[in-house]
Amino acid sequence: MKFVLRALFRDWAAVFGLAVIFLLAVLAIFGEWIAPFPEDAFDVKPWQRLRPPGPEFLLGTDALGRDILSRIILGARVALGIALTVVAAAALIGVPLGLVAGYRDGWLSDAIMRVTDIFLAVPQLVLALAFAAVMAPSIQTAMLALTLTYWPFFTRIVYGETRRVRSALYIDALMAVGAGPARIALMHILPNIMPAIIVRATIGLGVTILIAAALGFLGMGATPPTPEWGLMVAESRRYLPDAWWYSTFPGIAILLAVLAFNLLGDGLRDAVDPRLRRSR
Amino acid sequence: MADDTAPMLEVDDLSVRIGTLDGQLEVLQQVHLRVMPGQVVGLVGESGCGKSTLVRAVLRILPDSARQTGGAIRFRGTDLATLDERRMSREIRARRIAFIPQDPYLALNPLFTVGQQLMEILRWHGQAQGGGRRQWRARIAALFARVRLPEPEAMLDRFPHQLSGGQRQRVLIAAALLCDPELIVADEPTTALDVTTQQQILVLLRELVEELGVAVLFVTHDFGVVAELCSAVTVMYAGQTVEAGPMTEILHAPQHPYTRRLVECHPDRMRELRGIPGAVPSLVNPPGGCRFHPRCDRRVAGCETRPPQLVDVGGDHAVNCIHVHGGAA
User: Fold this and answer.
1) Above 90 in pLDDT, residue B90?
2) Quick check: B85 and B14 in contact, CB under 8 A?
3) Is the CB of A176 less than 8 angstroms away from the CB of B101?
4) Disruptive mutation site among A170, A197, A279 for chain B (greatest number of B CBs within 10 Å)
5) Which residues in chain A are contacts of B94 at CB distance < 8 A?
6) Which of B94, B98, B107 sits opposite A169 (nearest CB)?
7) Which of A37, A112, B211, B303 could be A101's S-S partner, Cβ–Cβ 3.0 to 4.6 Å?
8) Interface confidence (ipTM) of the complex
9) Residues B154, A178, B126: CA angle, nearest 5 degrees
10) Which domains are seen in chain B, by residue range?
11) Which carries the bigger pLDDT value, residue B267 or residue B256?
């Protein structure tokens, strides 16, 4: 563990990603105390609408006179909440299925992988849109749709990695000393494929933030007045190009969050794998 | 303890099939093998003749697609095939039959230190009753010293990639000795090593065998190794046992044409190197009868129909060939 952290901190891109994610986490947890106008999540202040960035409103105000900085800060919780829930749920479904399918041969393994293929063939955004159309558009609907389309990525990567590790001779050696399948899968195969899962999950957090924002933008995800970044960009479209700050800053928030998770994902992959670690 | 005149391990008429896309392959057909207590038996044959499958069948770690279709594997009189999986894991594997895998570069989990990996075996088999972590470490370090690893204490905290091939093989031997087994099954433990390291490992193994009196089933394709280590030999070809007997007899007076050619192939017995024409047959559609007959220089009518049958020629020597008829009863 110590090695991993040391290697990670030597990678400036990963450190940048980690710093941004740490900042996001702080904003998500303590948003109400940090935001200059926490009540701006819901309040309407028409007398101060569309003010450009200045000393009073650092990033300007939106069409309803709400402080954009405050709404970005409050939006961090929404974005991280969606991403963490979706990725955790998808991993919870996908990882065990992939382990079982990869460890066993036979019909069960085939069945799991064919179902996975079917789900992989459904585009995330389309299913999410369909869900939103059938049920009412809401953050919950979006999360459900994203989870249902993201778990197959975990299953597939865990399946492939399990197959690879399972054929290693040390698995034979473990069987020969009397270790059972559950023990081998959880204690030996899972740690060996953790790098792949971590990378997938970290990048998945970025992707999920992006798609959640896209859904918000299309009006099929978060509903007003929720301070959601994609929704903020959508609302700002009508005021472009005059109120440039209105769409730019939420956009930058999305960009930074996604970039941070991708950089951290790459950095983690290099740091967790002891063989890559030596070559750096 | 146990009767020393009864075989410790007796593989009798064992057949194993593996299901593949090409259909069912009979990778082992009526195989026989016997290991006496304290004996080192060499299991010899070309690549793909079923040596590793036999070893895995003994430990019951065959892939899911393989099935034992006939015969028995008796260890100290118990048929391992009928033992339930739990008892197999708890009582047989590592405890009484230990395994030294083929390639030391691949046989250790790269994510854990070698100490952690040996510790896990001890924990799993509850061999450390009462002992704390420190006693376990001391015990593993003592074993490391015994297999002559340098700095045994420090070695515990090394990762596999920090060790040399020879050192890893020593770690694997230590792992096999961890639970004081009665039988060690070694699947080509020296094949992946360079010649000098190979020699050191063989010397170590011979010392350990003499010191501990443990029986060894030693898989190899090298008659030089057999001559150095083993007192008996079983020769396999394409999933069949072709000949079994005392090492000196097999090496100096082989009876089966295949064994004869195989012994001749060994470089230091012949000035001129002779191979065996042809290749090991595909098991998808193996030759009937004696599976060696298409390559055999003493082939006669009847070879392709004769069912495999080991004929005792006396002095614990048995041959599976149409030309051999029982000598002494």
Assistant:
1) no
2) no
3) yes
4) A170
5) 176-178
6) B107
7) A112
8) 0.75
9) 65
10) 97-180 (3.40.50.300)
11) B256
